[in-house]
Specification:
three-stranded antiparallel β-sheet, single chain, 5 strands, elongated, 22% strand
Length: 128
């Protein structure tokens, strides 16, 4: 379930049974609102200055998840070499093709892109 929480206040029942807001230990420090969503079995979160920003952002994530177009924001941080090696080892090729692909990656691709984050590699760089 996707939701938005206020980090600065929590709601408690008063002595008369009516709910009221009480400042938390985080009151006044950092961003006030946190949007939470589930990415498979993992809970993710992102903080915002105001509630409207959190609502809009979380609505976008919810729509992307429903459409099947959601991408984990952290996915682009993975190093090119790690991703490429995982891809390479998952391929089913003849032994000669395996050696050929490994050689091209090692000699031509990894020196240029190997230690970079996936999100930093532009299509124009690949074409060049």
């Amino acid at each position: 379930m996707n939701d938005i929480d206020d980090r600065w206040y929590r709601t408690v029942k008063g002595p008369n049974g009516r709910p009221h807001k009480v400042p938390t230990a985080r009151h006044g420090a950092g961003k006030r609102w946190v949007a939470r969503w589930r990415d498979g079995s993992v809970q993710r979160k992102k903080s915002f200055e105001n509630k409207e920003q959190a609502k809009l952002w979380l609505a976008g994530v919810t729509v992307d998840q429903a459409r099947g177009t959601y991408l984990d924001p952290r996915a682009g941080r993975e190093r090119f070499r790690v991703y490429a090696e995982r891809w390479r080892t998952a391929q089913v090729h003849r032994p000669s093709t395996v050696a050929h692909v490994e050689s091209h990656l090692r000699n031509h691709v990894y020196p240029r892109f190997g230690d970079r984050a996936l999100s930093s590699v532009r299509p124009s760089e690949i074409q060049a």
